[in-house]
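Give me the fold.
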Amino acid sequence: MPFSKITGLGHYVPENVVSNNQLSNLMDTTDEWITERTGIKERRFFTEGKDTVSNMAARAAKVALERAGKKTEDVDAIIFATLSPDYYFPGAGVLMQRELGISKIPCFDVRSQCAGFLYALSIADQYIKSGMYKTILVAGSEIQSNMLEMSDRGRTMSVIFGDGAGACVVEAHEEKGKGILSTHLHSDGTHAEELLLKLPSSSMFQRGLVDGIKESGEILPYMNGKLVFQYAVKYFMEAINEALEFNNYTQSDVDLLIPHQANARITEYVRKEMNMPPEKVISNIHKYGNTTAASIPIAFTEAWEEGKVKDGDLIALAAFGSGFVWGSVLIRW
């Protein structure tokens, strides 16, 4: 049976940097308030006419392919994680495929929000282990800034999220004990409405008519912050420990933890629970905010670029998001 490993990483973020101070001119907030509660100092917002969810992913993928020493014609499949596709349909995967000039390979989207990249990576891992494909592009990309309301009403969400994309090349290899060791995915829809974007909805008689719903606020994303935090810290730890136990490792064996960049307080909580020094836990939320499905591949790429990812390292990825969905991936680099 072949095994799978990540052979190339890439990311792309829009050039438009939006600071906390800029947001304080649009709503009743301050840099101090945002930093204290989220750890975010700035984020990137897309430029209309330049950035799209699919072309940002394609830019990240081109970097990943180059670093993997692969060409577009080597790619057997594309798995695309996003909650903000360019169109309601078709999915963003085929648009990314078109951007890359690839034809006829399978492309599909994964809608698992903040855990989307891990879900996509798990699918790629299974396809490669089955022998069906040898080289797969996995991408996570989001444009969220245009679904936020820059106002006092929308400030609890609008200060958190940003735009960006990350991608990786996953390839088949024969060396046992290296690459992706295991993936672990979970979900529970009990609290689905505690973190959601409700409208427009397919359950509406005429979903395209927004008259009357803008004022209600249901066209804006909603989050029950306290409840989400409560479950996030619980499931982050459960997912990480599950991966470690499955592979007969302990927390002290982890060389690098790359969590979904949801909130600096969540990352810090997990770091302390695992008794890990700050330098072993990747956090870049201060630069980009929460980029949802793109956050782990962006953070992973930056960690690799900065020389923090070393041969032989045991790397844990973990995420929690709307659904609720959560999971982990354990990698021996």
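The chain has eleven helices and 13 strands.
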